[in-house]
Amino acid sequence: MSKEKRWMFGIGIAVVFILTLVFIVRQAMHAAGLSMALLFVLTNTARAAGFRERGMMREAKWMNLLAGFFVILFIVLAVMLFI
């Protein structure tokens, strides 16, 4: 992963983390769960890229599958929250 892409993932993770904390403090648990799912998508995708760089293909595959699971969870929570 390039340095710019790594920075973008880091900034995205930091922003979503702060957003999650704000939702928790405001006791907006539905929105906190939604932002936590997005946080897990970002962190697992970044970890998968790191594993792939180091040649750990099996671990990268698992991290991508886990990120996919959290994408599905994010979509389900978003639909539940906005309908």
Describe the structure.
This protein has one domain (3-82). The chain contains 3 helices and no strands. It has helices at 3-25, 29-53, 57-82. The longest helix has 26 residues, at 57-82. It starts with a helix and ends with a helix. This is Aspartyl/asparaginyl-tRNA synthetase. Keywords: Membrane, Transmembrane, Transmembrane helix.
Task: Give me a quick take on this structure.
This is Aspartyl/asparaginyl-tRNA synthetase. It is built from three helices and no strands.
Write the topology of this structure.
Blueprint: H1 3-25, H2 29-53, H3 57-82
Helix pairs in contact: 1-2, 2-3
Transmembrane segments: 7-25, 31-50, 62-82
Keywords: Membrane, Transmembrane, Transmembrane helix
Protein name: Aspartyl/asparaginyl-tRNA synthetase
